[in-house]
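BUG: 3D viewer hangs when loading the predicted structure for this chain

Environment: internal workstation, default settings.
Expected: structure renders.
Actual: progress bar stalls at 90%.

Input used:
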Amino acid sequence: MTSPKIDTSKPHPARMYDYFLGGKDNYEVDQEAAEQFIKAAPEVRAAVRANRSFMQRAVRHVVEEGGVRQILDIGTGLPTEPNVHQIARAVAPETRIAYVDNDPIVSAHSRSLLDDDDENTSVVLADLRDPRAVLDHPDVRKVIDLDRPVALMLVAILHFVTEAEDPDALLETLLDALPTGSYLILSHATVDLFEEGGRTDAVKIYNSATASMNPRRHARVLEFFRDWTLLEPGLVLVPDWRPTEPVDPGLPPIGFYGGVARKDG
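Structure tokens produced before the viewer hung:
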């Protein structure tokens, strides 16, 4: 089988995110776009670190407190330790994980981290914009049993879906496929913290990338949870979601909302 071609002609959000985090799995085109973004939004590095910390706390919660033993991580991004499987398995070693991303370099790097005999983890090249293909992918179904509770992760990914691409329909397909007792971990970029027109220049940088950025207001992000039960403290800025230590008052504005919700019967 021919390996999917890695497109280095345009910046990719996953590789830009890796650059923001200080990673090395990115190309010059990603670095140039990321540096432009940093100039327009100098808080971005603190924001992506805060978003990643939220992800770690949320994963730990759904495994430890929620009892979930299956995780479907869509838009996983390039590996950065601790990775989702490491966080989950520190609590419950039997946890099964499917990583899904649409960038071939993400798949390649993710696979390189796994042991050859790891039958509880899949790495899948697929796109959130085709949720049925994600759910039906044989490598997803190999580790995810949709008759048992699943933690669906959509961390810093949905803001790369335009309104024209109908994020509500994508979520309906994904969430309706999951049984009672499942969880949704979601974070999303916002410009609510900035003055009208603030960060417009930063957002425009993604127009030249493989996916545009579409920050949304709190009320709109809240709609993505549909009728699932939001856990306390609800949909909040990511540093404020169940912090394990006092939030640093010196943090710059963190333009990410995050929340965790449960599907009740």
